[in-house]
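re: ur question from earlier - yeah i can do the single chain one, its not a big deal. heres the input i used so u can compare w yours
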Amino acid sequence: MKKKISLGKNVHFDKEVNVAYGNLPEQIMDLYIPQTKSAKEREVFVIIHGGGWRSGNKSQLTFFTLSLMQKFPDHIFVNMNYRLASETHYALPNQLDDIREVSKFLEKKLHYSPKMILLGNSAGGHLSMLYAYHSDSLKKVKAVINIVGPTDLSDSSFRSYQEYSFVERRLVDPHIPKPGISRIDFASPIHWITQNTPPTLSYYGKTDRVIPATQGKILDSVLSKNNVIHEAYEFNGGHLDWDRSPNDLFLIDKIDLFLKRIDKK
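and the output i got, formated as tokens:
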């Protein structure tokens, strides 16, 4: 069911809610397509929620998605749900496969293969990086916006995360990593960084008790070593404060400048 939404002067989108991109109940997304006519192939923001890989919902990021749409009225937006991990279902590879299914769905619907900007917070930031660095064999990801995402799951300060035993047990299906790579390394985005890794912008909280500041610093150092375009910013606050004012508007401005910087390359 299509619905039109207006976000101020000349910003109009067609909105479709709970569009199925797969056959399972969790494989749904909200889709926003600009109403303006454009000859060029539009890029897509794919928004990926957090929740420790086993909870959370796209509705958590609806308001932030609408704020982004005001800044980027010519982009398509997807705000996706994905299959959550549990004691009976591993997070990976399912959650990476779900991002790939969204990409395939968009290709069919739009009749071209869109460049994607993956943006996620917390577990969603982790999935954005891991997909872009490890699973994007067709190089469709143009950039990653990583908001408070874990980057190195073997980092000793991350091991104090209260759900760490769940991460060790249920994050990665043990059949997936090739011999010689541990499940924790497999699931760590930094393990997959090369000189071809997409440009990455990161945003971390100065008083985040869930994801320690070391995670951003480790990511920066590996991206630098591989000469990957990247930027990192900090906000005042804890794990959930990134989308509170003024942190949210600061981030949206930085995303805008970052994407313009990439386009100049």
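The two ends are 39 Å apart (CA to CA). not sure if urs matches, ping me
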